[in-house]
Design brief:
Oligomer: single chain
Helix content: 40-55%
Number of strands: 3
Shape: globular
Largest sheet: 3 strands, parallel
Order of helices and strands: HEHEHEHHHHHHH
Strand order of the largest sheet: 1-2-3
Number of helices: 10
Strand content: under 5%
Radius of gyration: 21 Å
Structural class: mainly alpha
Distance between the termini: 27 Å
Length: about 230
Amino acid sequence: MSTLAHVFEAAGLATVVFASMIEVVELMRPPRALYCEFPLGRPLGKPEDTAFQLDVLRRGLALLDAESPIIETHPEVIESDETPMACRLPPRHDPSAPPAVDEARGLRAAYDRALAKRGVTAVGRVLDASSIPDALAVLHEWAEGGDWKQTPLPGKNTVAVCHDIRAYYDEAALELVTGPPPGGRSAEAWFFEQTEAGATLLAARKSLEAQGAPFPFWFYMAPAHR
């Protein structure tokens, strides 16, 4: 965004960057930036808090009247919540299937409700919802030591496949949790720490590393700290 700000400014358009990483704006020096120490992915801060979000926008737009370059800091800090969200998973239905496969099938009704309610989905980079269990079956094989070269993954691109699996689980989970929207890190913690799919994905990544698979093929399947 900081780079784009310089490009737009050179074309005569005034810009304000709402920055989540102070190191980046200090290095890139966009003409105007409001640094907001909020969780990544939430540049306006608190979900469903219109007053707070309007305050962020007003503080940012006020910088249009300031002499540039300028970096202001929003006075409120919002810590990332890494406590796993409370989401009850469906019970096992088919004990003969790998746990992650059975789990994903059990979430399909919740995913379908989410899709009907919102009309859009983040699933679809390389897989549709019906292909999620098949992809998890392959990841299960890899996690058990199966040769990744001999067992192709639906969609082929591991990063895109894992994105679709995460999106499927996140959207289904939002139909099963109550209360305010969970923080981004709490949803991530739930997926990797409490679901069979998350455990399978991490085990598959570890197996790929041990097998000597190319670094980009396995490393970006999950956040680096996982």
